[in-house]
């Protein structure tokens, strides 16, 4: 019988049994891996999602509500009875029942563990489009977690230029350096840049970006803060340098790209990028499905340990 992860309260998660739906048209797929989008899922598990965000943050096959309890998750890869590797948006669950239109077949050469990165790859590629870069170089990524590492690797593949990584955590900073990126702690850089991507989910990261942009520089803000308020100092450089803060959100294709690509095109672009084995270096931690409630206990407290990307193995 299938089981799924539920967040019961701001301090408790558990695995619950799932009955097979009566809808016989749904395809049964056995989960192989799912990905934990740590920033977003920490807020969900804590019950810190603003009520006004309910609709925009809802995911396919979610149950319950953001007021808790909730069954929530981001990206899942499994296999069907024909042995095909399929990706879908689905909460963490050992066997899923999904409409055929909601599955995406993994390209040849992309293993299941790497394919689970697809949903957040769409976030990364959308952020690149949101930045509207006419040329690459002079670009900083603030934060080398899930999204930051995918963004850095994607920029490297699509532009041939490595962005500079700014990371406060020494373990992640070394990981970025080991992958060949210039990697600095925030206090070590005093340059001015043209574009800064903030992936830190922190106001200090966003402030750092504002404070390190040159004339008409752009901050692309990928962080989601839930119901947390953000306090910024805008009296120093923000107006003087005519700095822009651009919100990047994956649900919608940027307006200037909508005549060129749609959501299905974007998914194919990201899946093709995932044929590169370099993305395997980003998956640093595997969690056994049985241990997922305990992992979320740690995640809520911000004490899940060192890592870049965490995936659940079924």
Give the tags:
Quinone Oxidoreductase, Chain A, domain 1, 6-stranded parallel β-sheet, Rossmann fold, 7-stranded mixed β-sheet, 2 domains, 314 residues
Descriptive notes:
This protein is an alpha/beta fold and 314 residues long. It has 2 domains: 2-117 and 274-313, Alpha-Beta Complex (Quinone Oxidoreductase, Chain A, domain 1), CATH 3.90.180; 124-257, 3-Layer(aba) Sandwich (Rossmann fold), CATH 3.40.50. 27% of the residues lie in helices and 26% in strands. It is built from 9 helices and 17 strands. It has helices at residues 38-46, 54-57, 112-115, 118-131, 146-159, 170-178, 203-211, 263-273, 292-301; strands at 2-9, 12-18, 27-36, 63-64, 70-71, 75-79, 85-88, 95-98, 104-105, 139-142, 164-166, 183-184, 193-198, 213-221, 244-247, 283-288, 309-313. Strands 3, 6, 7, 8, 9, 16 and 17 form a 7-stranded mixed beta sheet that branches. Strands 12-11-10-13-14-15 form a 6-stranded parallel beta sheet, sandwiched between helices. Strand 1 (2-9) and strand 2 (12-18) form a beta hairpin. Helix 4 (118-131) crosses helix 5 and helix 4 (118-131) crosses helix 8. The chain is globular. The protein starts with a strand and ends with a strand. The model has no long low-confidence stretch (mean pLDDT 95).
The shape, in one word, is globular
Tell me the distance between the termini: 13 Å
CATH topology of the largest domain: Quinone Oxidoreductase, Chain A, domain 1
Point out poorly predicted stretches: none
Instruction: Give the count of structural domains.
Output: 2
* Helix fraction bin: 25-40%
Share of β-strand residues: 25-35%
Q: Count the beta strands.
A: 17
CATH architecture of the largest domain: Alpha-Beta Complex
């Amino acid at each position: 019988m299938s089981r799924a992860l539920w967040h019961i309260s701001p301090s408790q998660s558990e695995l619950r049994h799932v009955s097979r739906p009566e809808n016989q048209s749904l395809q049964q797929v056995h989960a192989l891996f799912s990905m934990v989008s740590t920033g977003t899922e920490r807020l969900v598990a804590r019950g810190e999602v603003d009520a006004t965000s309910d609709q925009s943050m809802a995911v396919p096959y979610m149950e319950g509500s953001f007021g808790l309890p909730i069954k929530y998750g981001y990206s899942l890869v499994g296999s069907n009875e024909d042995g095909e590797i399929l990706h879908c948006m689905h909460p963490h669950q050992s066997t899923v029942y999904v409409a055929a239109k909601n599955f995406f077949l993994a390209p040849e050469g992309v293993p299941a563990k790497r394919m689970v990165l697809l949903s957040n790859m769409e976030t990364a590629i959308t952020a690149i489009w949101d930045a509207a870069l006419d040329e690459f170089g002079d670009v900083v990524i603030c934060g080398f977690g899930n999204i930051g590492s995918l963004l850095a690797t994607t920029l490297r593949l699509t532009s041939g230029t490595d962005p500079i990584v700014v990371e406060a955590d020494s373990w992640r900073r070394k990981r970025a350096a080991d992958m060949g990126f210039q990697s600095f702690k925030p206090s070590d850089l005093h340059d001015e840049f043209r574009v800064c991507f903030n992936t830190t989910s922190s106001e200090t990261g966003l402030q750092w970006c504002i404070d390190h942009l040159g004339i008409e520089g752009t901050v692309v803000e990928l962080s989601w803060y839930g119901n947390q308020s953000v306090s910024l100092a805008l009296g120093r450089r923000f107006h003087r340098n005519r700095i822009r803060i651009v919100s990047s959100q994956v649900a919608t294709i940027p307006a200037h790209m909508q005549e060129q690509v749609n959501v299905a095109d974007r998914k194919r672009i990201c899946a093709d990028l995932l044929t590169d084995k370099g993305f395997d270096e980003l998956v640093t931690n595997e969690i056994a499905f049985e241990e997922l409630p305990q992992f979320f206990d740690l995640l809520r407290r911000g004490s899940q340990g060192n890592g870049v990307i965490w995936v659940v193995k079924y």
